[in-house]
Amino acid sequence: MSAPAIPPEPGPQPAPTPPVAPMPTLDTLDCLVPYPKYTVMLAWPISPQPDPPPHLVLATRDTKREVQEFLSAQAVAWTEIDPINAIQCSANAQLSASPHSPGSSDERITHPCQNAESATLETEPCLQLDSLQNSIDATAMLESLITSTRIASRERFRQCCQTLEDQGFLRTPRADVVILQTSPDSAPLSGAPQNFTSANQPTDIAVATVSLGDPCGLSPCESTKTAVTNALRRLVCSGATPTHIQFLAATPASSMSDSSGSHRENAPGLTDTSFHFKIQLVTGFDLPHQPDSFLAFGIVEESQHMTTPWFKDEGDAIVLIGHPIDWEDPLQGLGGSSWLRVIHQLRTGRRSLCNLIEARCLHEAVRSLIYGGAVKSACGCDEGGLAVRVAECCMGPSGEPNTPRLLGAELDLTVLSPDNHTPVTTTICKEAWLFGESQNRILITTNPLDAGKILAQAKILGVPAVLIGRVGGTQLRIKSSQSEDSWDLHRLYNLRREAATR
Are 464 and 323 in contact (CB under 8 A)? Predict the structure, then answer.
């Protein structure tokens, strides 16, 4: 008679996996309450610069006409956006053969003047970082970038609309995303009221926008993936769950010569991105005098999940989620970057590729961390790179008009290193650490007591996370392996404000 089998001794129990924020389904969209106080408008300045960035504003319903007339008088084109109908009525919409939607252009789009001639930049067929000789230091580079036309455009547009904002007619975004808060005591945005599950717990709508921009060595498909992922990352950093993406094609009157041809080239990238992120595609429409753009919609199920990019409190820990550098990119994230355009007047070099699987993992991890309640701020490191985005996070609003809240930061980038599985044969230059625009990176801040928990949860969720600094002081200090640089926040704010008035 054989001896009974002895059960193996239980091994060490794995750490509990933090809950992953669920992806939205059509059932969860039934709780949307179509009673927003504001109308969402997409606006873009008619300016000499190429690819003017779009802006999102919220206009009160009863003063919408005054706001539209004011924007037209300021040489700002605009169009109304209906995110609630886009989410509720187009949840099953598929990418059609043509993005055009019916309707009179006089009703949907206002374009006060023709597009100005684009500024010319020197181009090269290829780029070698060794050929770029920097005649200015990192301090002057950041000052030039923070005051450049494109990066300072948000502050310029906010100042343009400051009067209407002070009068309560308008809400301009002080971040990359606007939140359309629903309210059961307001009149519906359009059409008849729709059924909803609970008026006491409305679900708010988040909207983000991004322009396709200059491909810079990428195919239309890859450029679309990168742009859409940037828009979705902005929603995730605001605490929203992305649900829909809408393609807004440029008309032949703008920088694109054939919007339908452009749509056919961008369609594979849209389809691939929507598949990976499990989001719906919504039919778009034409935007005269504006480059191809994308609108991303999401839902904020709980108000406590709303997150802004600005630093909140002295002593908070700064954590970088994601790979700091694309180690396989020979240009180290500087190809097609704002650093190249502003500092070297070059529009060349291939942009970093966007890994959709890695991006989805990053987005789900950051949403889970936000849902856990330990994240105080979140910001993607896209346009301008790490140094520019951190500087913008240091200059947050204080609640008073024209009065910023300046919170410094100290960053130590020497703690960042390549993965053990990635051979690196070149040294990462300082400009790549500061101004490189590698994909799939998010900065978050948290209470220093929660920093260890954030790092542990990120490891469980399968994303890199490194504690790189702390919030505090009146300066921005960044230490790299090559040098240690510092910037006075009051000077940066004054320079950006002066640039916004030009």
Answer: yes
Q: Quick check: 234 and 271 in contact, CB under 8 A?
A: no
Torsion of CA 298, 44, 340, 362, to 10 degrees: 0
Strand partners, 209: 295
Q: What is the pLDDT of residue 17?
A: 56
78, 110 Cβ separation under 8 angstroms = yes
Nearest residue to 367 (alpha-carbon basis) of 434, 457, 286, 450: 457
Q: What is the mean pLDDT of residues 415-426?
A: 58
- List the domains of the chain with CATH numbers: 28-304 (3.30.1330.10), 317-497 (3.90.650.10)
C-alpha 255/C-alpha 50 separation (Å) is 8
Q: Tens digits of per-residue pLDDT, 122-139?
A: 444 567 777 777 767 889
Residue whose C-alpha is closest to residue 334's, from 190, 131, 74, 43 = 131
Number of H helices and number of E strands within the chain?
14, 20
Residue 281: strand pairing partners: 245
Q: Tally Cβ neighbours within 10 Å of residue 123.
A: 11
| CA separation for the pair 470, 454 (Å, rounded) | 15
Tell me the C-alpha to C-alpha distance, in Å, between residue 160 and each of 56, 363, 393: 13, 33, 21
To which H or E segment does residue 85 belong?
A: helix 83-88
Q: Give yes or no for a contact between 211 and 262, defined as CB atoms under 8 angstroms apart.
A: no
- What sign results for the dihedral spanned by CA atoms 363, 368, 371, 377? negative
Written as six digits, the tokens of 98 are: 């043509």
pTM of the model: 0.84
CA 198 vs CA 91, 183, 202, 203, 241: distances in Å: 20, 11, 7, 9, 19
Cβ proximity of 407 and 475 under 8 Å: no
- Burial track 348-372 (b if 16+ CB lie within 10 A, e otherwise): bbbbbebbbebbbbbbbbbbbbbbb
Residue pair 313/306 in contact (Cβ under 8 Å)? The answer is no
- Position 42 scores a pLDDT of 87
According to DSSP, residue 168 is labeled T
Structure tokens given for 499: 């640039």
Q: Which residues contact 282 (CB under 8 A, 6 or more apart)?
A: 86, 90, 93, 244, 245, 246, 297
C-alpha closest to that of 360 among 270, 421, 278:
278
Q: Is the pLDDT of residue 197 over 60?
A: no
Tokens 């008619």 belong to residue: 46
CB distance 469 to 311 below 8 Å: no
What residues are paired with 58 via a beta bridge? 40, 171
